[in-house]
Design a protein that fits this description.
21 helices, mainly alpha, 450 residues, two-stranded parallel ribbon, globular, Growth Hormone, Chain: A
């Protein structure tokens, strides 16, 4: 007899059913992109207002990204403990409150504190959203859907660029404009159902059956008899439960966890380094605020096409091939961009290439890592990988602006990151399984085989 997992993953995809979860989850992801992209626009404007050096201005991005790193770690574990739905809503509420506070900050130190706290809330959006969407999505389209989730990132980044360009140099208004739609989304998220896979493992059979029966009705599928497995023992939320989740991830598979962490770290070292500092790089090259902001916006807008292509490729050639090839190529594009920075046409072309190719990598990576872990570890597994990437990337603005760019130069900086990314891709090739066309539990069973 089939289990609840099999029923949910064998249902047909319908926009009024699983599609609603995809849209609501994706909008939260959009705000994550908006906020991260905003760092690049805030750095030059805040530096002008408070007379900051390049190294001091870098703390705008570092404070926010470190907050997101801690948030990704904390909220991933929280979602595995209190449920996806509750964590789903609280992440945005925290972000909204501290974004308003940041817009009203009287000095630079206070501003950085509030950027850190806003990041703490928003950092949970990605692991929580991907866990929830993945657990509602049928296996046959899961790779495509989870990859397509990332289309919200370049949409959010592009909206940020358009709004920031229109509002510059008023950086306080740039922060406030995000808050109203974020609060509206918080209200909408209250109607999203809890993950049935989570409910089953919590022993909440009645609630789980109600959610699954609702999905069956909305999709119009004909489903035979099915049963609920016995509940799993899941830890209560505490500092020790977080430590235990860390241990469980490595006990489950040291190879998978190390490959996931290496990929997240190197891909986002490259992406956040480029995104955070591109406006400042272009301003140093002689571009005005408007031109520098619009070129950055162009880079993110091209990424929308990249996500759509990635969503198609992951189910054609597999997750590993997309990640392993596109990641190093995107780093190469930034090396060439840096070499040809004095040629405006060529520089814009290569930054466009980067914007397209990196968005082949990131959505495939998100889909892939969210499929590698069992239900009890899915949100925390993704959250820990995201945490590692954002801790590393969180120091990129500071290291990039005070050490790498001034001493190594841009081409060598991007080359070093590219080599690290290529090594991480090679490790993934031998250490982690392909998840294309496989049910989540099937991947789990194969990993546990001797």
């Amino acid at each position: 007899m089939r289990t609840d997992d099999q029923v949910v993953q064998e249902l047909p995809w319908r926009w009024r059913a699983q599609g609603t979860i995809f849209l609501v989850g994706g909008l939260g992801f959009m705000f994550d992109a908006w906020d991260v992209t905003l760092n690049g626009f805030l750095i030059p404007l805040v530096s002008d207002e408070w007379g900051l050096t390049k190294a001091e201005g870098a703390w705008v991005g570092t404070a926010n990204l470190i907050g997101m790193a801690i948030g990704a770690f904390a909220w991933g574990g929280i979602a595995d403990t209190i449920g996806r739905k509750r964590a789903f809503s609280l992440t945005l509420l925290t972000f909204s409150v501290f974004s308003v506070a940041g817009a009203l900050a009287p000095d630079f130190v206070t501003f950085c504190v509030f950027r850190f706290l806003a990041g703490l809330g928003l950092g949970g959006c990605i692991p929580v959203d991907y866990a929830l969407v993945g657990e509602f999505t049928p296996a046959k389209v899961r790779g495509r859907v989870l990859t397509a989730m990332d289309v919200w990132w370049p949409i959010g980044a592009t909206l940020c660029g358009v709004v920031s360009t229109a509002l510059q140099p008023n950086w306080r208004a740039m922060l406030l404009v995000m808050v109203l739609p974020a609060l509206l989304l918080f209200w909408v998220r209250l109607s999203v159902p809890e993950s049935p896979m989570y409910l089953v493992r919590r022993g909440k059979d009645k609630e789980a059956r109600a959610v699954i029966d609702g999905l069956i009705a909305k999709t119009g599928a004909k489903v035979g008899p099915w049963e609920l497995p016995p509940p799993e023992r899941m830890p209560r939320l505490s500092a020790m439960s977080m430590v235990q989740q860390f241990r469980d991830l490595w006990r489950y598979s040291a190879k998978i966890t190390s490959a996931s962490w290496a990929l997240f770290l190197t891909v986002f070292l490259l992406y956040y380094g480029a995104l955070t500092w591109l406006p400042s790089i272009l301003r140093a090259q002689g571009y005005g605020n408007y031109a520098a902001f619009m070129v950055t916006t162009l880079m993110t807008a091209v990424g929308i096409v990249g996500v759509l292509v990635s969503a198609w490729l992951v189910d054609v050639v597999g997750r590993k091939w997309v990640i392993g090839l596109s990641g190093p190529v995107s780093a190469l594009a930034m090396v060439v961009f840096a070499i040809q920075l004095d040629i405006p046409g060529a520089a814009k072309f290569w930054i466009g290439v980067f914007g397209f190719v990196i968005e082949l990598t990131i959505p495939a990576l998100y889909a892939y890592v969210s499929e590698l872990y069992p239900t009890r570890l899915r949100a925390s597994g993704f959250g820990w990988a995201s945490t590692i990437s954002r801790i590393g990337a969180g120091f990129v603005p500071l290291i990039f602006g005070s050490l790498l760019w001034p001493y190594l130069g841009l081409p060598m900086t991007f080359l070093v990151i590219g080599v690290l990314l290529a090594l991480a891709s090679l490790w993934m090739a031998v250490a982690a399984p392909e998840t294309k066309d496989r049910e989540l539990d099937q991947v789990n069973r194969e990993v546990l085989l001797p």
